[in-house]
Please model this.
Amino acid sequence: MPIMNDHDKRQSIIDACLRMNQLGINQGTSGNISLRHDEGMLITPTSVPYEAMQPEQIVYMGLDGSLAPDARPSSEWRFHLDILKARPEVNAVVHAHPPYATILAIMGLEIPPVHYMIACAGGDTIRCAPYATYGTQELSQYAVKALEDRLACLLAHHGMIAVGPSLSKAMWLAVEVETLARQYHGCLQIGTPPLLSKAEIKNVLGRIAGYGPAAE
Ligand code: 13P
Model:
């Protein structure tokens, strides 16, 4: 990733939050975003409307969980931090409550290989992590597990997480996941969709590496 200074990174997080809502993959303040920064992460503050969010309100948290005394990070800081700790190749974490991904997550459904673009998330499924109360360490553990060898997962009765080497890639993937969820949801209205084979997804995985926007 090109070097961005602290202020630019903070502003890029706010811009991405606004974009999530414009794109219809989130509503209100239910999403949150983090970016790896120095020996920690920059993360959205809890419950601040994106339109009013200021760069100085973005919270810095060390990888050890250290915080400024008056900081109010997103209630989901645990899974943001744990994902960045578990996945050195990941620099950005996007969490949102996109309508179709969340419908599937409420039903406890993973997304199967109904479309080859699922390979953009790293495998032949997008798993659905079991339910745990928002903001808890239990939810964080489930999320990290559901993301093993993957760049996205659903969270039961909750929403979706997309990660990437850059914020633009993670945002792009979040939109792709919601598109896949919408397609799968549509298929389920007609019947049981036929699936692509594991071998074909493996074939696509070999071609699709690096697809998507260039890192910002
Ligand atoms: P924050 O406003 O604390 O980021 O939380 C929103 C949310 O919906 C958590 O899943």
Remarks:
- The beta strands are 32-37, 40-43, 59-62, 92-96, 128-129, 152-155, 159-164.
